[in-house]
Design a protein that fits this description.
Shape: rod-shaped
Radius of gyration: 52 Å
Number of helices: 3
Structural class: mainly beta
Largest sheet: 3 strands, parallel
Distance between the termini: 132 Å
Helix content: under 10%
Length: 712
């Protein structure tokens, strides 16, 4: 080792007064170093060191080596240079420090290194390697151009770096570049750990793009905080940065566990309360609670809890034993919002009888789903449970809106696809701008939409411009089926369209215990009416409260029209009977009847047959009253297209069937009406007919055929 250059002689005497101090070695220099020592050997034992300068003081409070530099602008009291060892080393056998420095305006001990640590210290059992105490400034301060300013390492259970302060932070780090102010790395324990009895365990404030606190761990949590009264970890982000942001390659980015309160809680006035991004199979945010929610987020204007999942992972995942796994509350926005490019935005799975996803709304819907192309809300129920369950007190239990797809789509393998109940409102309400409000498709023998009403209608449909209720049934099943005890089985109302519209081989089939149909109002029929008798029934003119008056219509084997009237003969015993101008266009094959009133008229006759919608009568006395009648057979276009045949043959399906078989002692199953009933429900027994017998397979029915007639 090259020896250190000996010190040069000073230009003048030193006026330094040592006073009462006693030193093993004392050196005073005005501009240079007070004492310089150079060592080229090595110690044989730890207690027998070989140093460039060695000072020993046996008294308490004494200093082994002391150096003083008078020039306040520069110079060092003690300088130690070593090519392989430590330039200055101090060893203390008591409780004092091996090297002690006190500074009035600068640091007490300062170390600068280009490659290694500026100051390094190794502490004994329970003692820190380097200890610093500051009145107004930091206890320990380190600066480095490439490495850490202050570095602490502990092989035992103690902290590598510990700081304590009465008013300020125990450990404070500041950085001007992109690195963290304080950085901790743990192999099996936490990288940075803070414990507080009343205040914050660890607090950090980030810059423009940096995080307030960053923790990275290979096995344990990157950041861990424990507090008996306050939050274990508290972070406040600036601008649009998140207060807490965690990323993990396999585990959860942020994980919180609590026995009473929420495991992870985030609050924000504008941004996200809690945000997490998961990797692999891990969730972005994961929380587990025993009594409270696993994850809870609250926001005044934004999203209370937001999660974005990658691959097949959930954006937000929460597991609760008794409470909700994930709970979000927002006064103006959405309580819980989930977004996924491939999977479900929000998915819930419950054990027992609880719902996988449960929502409660005070004035709005409990659960609302909106989709531009897919289903707004999708649910699948198992073993008798509904896929989606919604309950509303004043509003709708379940509401869905979609611009192109189904607003609410539910599929079930055993239970109901959609089951809804409401105490005061509508059980199921569907609204569509262009499509179907509520659409149901039944499987097997089940109807697509089924409604059962206790006191009201089982199924109610209302439309302002189109059909109120539309149903399509498959393989002999009814398109719409309604069963009710007291109210109507099916009720349809429309402001401008048809309340109930039926189309089919038989457009409408009705059978009742008292009446097959009761029509209150005018009836318009464009086809033929087949009946056993056409009757008129009105209230009795003289006993309206006690009796009816019933009349039968006149039947004929021709499509006849009958017209009558009365006339008074003139002075020549003649009269002209005027008829409407359309008379000949509607009728042909005319027949006349004349009756004299008040006196006989044997010569009374039709003097001119019908021509130009009038005919003449003559042969009576002047002033005689004559009643006349003329009949004609219809010859309009409808009548010519549908000529009446008085005795048509029955079709192949109708042969052997009777209109009223019970009147001639035949089985009821031979009725034409039973044929139509079997067409409507071929495999179902008729609950209204207790006289039914065994039925054989029937060919597909068709409407009664044959000649027709009636009003056109």
């Amino acid at each position: 080792m090259s020896p250190v250059k000996p010190p040069e002689a000073q230009d003048g005497p030193s006026d330094f007064d040592p006073g009462d101090h006693r030193f093993g070695v004392w050196g005073d220099c005005e501009t240079g170093s007070g004492v310089i020592g150079s060592s080229g050997g090595s110690a044989d034992a730890p207690d027998d060191p070989v140093a460039g300068v060695l000072g020993v003081h046996e008294q308490s409070g004494g200093v082994g080596v002391a150096g003083h530099a008078r020039n306040v602008g520069g110079g060092t009291g003690v300088v130690g240079l070593s090519t392989g060892g430590v330039g200055v080393a101090g060893r203390s056998r008591g409780t004092g420090a091996g090297v002690h420095g006190s500074g009035t305006r600068g640091p007490g001990v300062e170390g600068v290194s280009d490659q290694a640590a500026g100051v390094t210290g190794t502490g004994g059992r329970g003692r820190p390697g380097v200890a610093g105490s500051g009145g107004d400034g930091p206890g320990v301060e380190g600066r480095s151009t490439g490495g850490a300013g202050v570095s602490g390492t502990s092989t035992g259970s103690g902290a590598g770096l510990a700081g304590a302060s009465a008013d300020g932070p125990g450990v404070s780090g500041s950085v001007t570049g992109a690195g963290p102010g304080v950085k901790g790395s743990g192999v099996t324990g936490p990288g940075v750990q803070g414990v507080s009895a009343q205040g914050d365990g660890v607090t950090g404030t980030g810059g423009t793009t940096g995080a307030g606190v960053v923790g990275t761990a290979t096995a344990g949590p990157g950041l861990s905080g424990t507090s008996t009264a306050g939050p274990g970890v508290r972070a406040q982000g600036g601008g649009t940065a998140a207060g807490v942001e965690g990323k993990a390659p396999a585990g959860p980015g942020v994980s919180g566990t609590s026995t009473d309160g929420p495991g992870v809680s985030g609050s924000s006035t504008k941004g996200d309360g809690v945000t997490g991004q998961g990797g692999g199979q891990g969730a972005g945010v994961s929380g587990a609670g025993t009594d409270g929610p696993g994850v809870s987020g609250t926001s005044a204007t934004g999203v209370g809890l937001r999660g974005t999942g990658g691959g097949t992972s959930a954006g937000v995942e929460g597991v609760g034993s008794a409470g909700a796994g994930v709970r979000g509350v927002s006064t103006r926005g959405t309580g819980v919002l989930g977004s996924s490019e491939q999977g479900a935005g929000v998915t819930g799975k419950a054990g027992g009888a609880n719902a996988g996803v449960e929502g409660a709304g005070d004035s709005g819907p409990g659960v609302s789903g909106t989709s531009a192309q897919g289903a707004g809300v999708s649910g699948t129920g198992g073993s008798g449970a509904p896929g989606v369950l919604g309950t509303g007190t004043d509003g709708a239990g379940l509401q869905g809106a979609s611009t192109s797809g189904a607003a609410v789509l539910a599929e079930s393998v055993s239970g109901a696809g959609v089951s809804a109940s409401s105490t005061r409102g509508t059980g199921v309400s569907g609204t569509s701008g262009q499509g179907v409000g509520v659409s149901g498709t039944g499987g097997g023998a089940s109807p697509g939409v089924k409604g059962t009403g206790g006191g009201g209608p089982g199924l109610s449909g209302s439309s302002t411009e189109n059909v109120g209720v539309l149903g399509k049934g498959g393989s002999g099943k009814a398109g719409v089926e309604g069963t009710v005890t007291f109210g109507p089985g099916v009720l349809g109302r429309s402001v401008q369209g048809n309340g109930v519209e039926a189309r089919g081989a038989t457009g409408l089939y009705a059978k009742g215990t008292s009446q097959a149909a009761f029509l209150d109002g005018d009836v318009v029929i464009t086809g033929t009416v087949f009946d056993g008798a056409s009757l008129m029934r009105i209230d009795h003119p003289t006993l309206p409260e006690d009796r009816f008056l019933v009349h039968a219509a006149v039947e004929s084997s021709e499509l006849k029209n009958v017209y009558d009237g009365s006339a008074v003969l003139d002075e020549q015993g003649r009269a002209t009977i005027e008829l409407p101008e359309w008379f000949e266009s509607l009728n042909e094959s005319f027949r006349y009847q004349l009756t004299a009133v008040g006196a006989p008229a044997p010569d009374l006759h039709v003097s001119r047959p019908l021509a130009d919608h009038s005919f003449d009568i003559a042969g009576g006395a002047a002033g005689l009253d004559v009643c006349w009648q003329i009949t004609g057979v219809r010859c309009d276009d409808w009548a010519r297209a549908h000529p009446l045949v008085a005795d048509p043959s029955k079709s192949a399906e109708e042969k052997g069937l009777l209109v009223h078989p019970d009147l001639v002692g035949r089985p009821v199953d031979l009725s034409l009406s039973a044929l139509v009933a079997r067409a409507a429900a071929p495999a179902e027994p008729d609950p209204w007919d207790d006289r039914r017998g065994p039925r054989s397979p029937e060919p597909p029915p068709r409407p009664p055929s044959g000649p027709v007639g009636g009003a056109g």
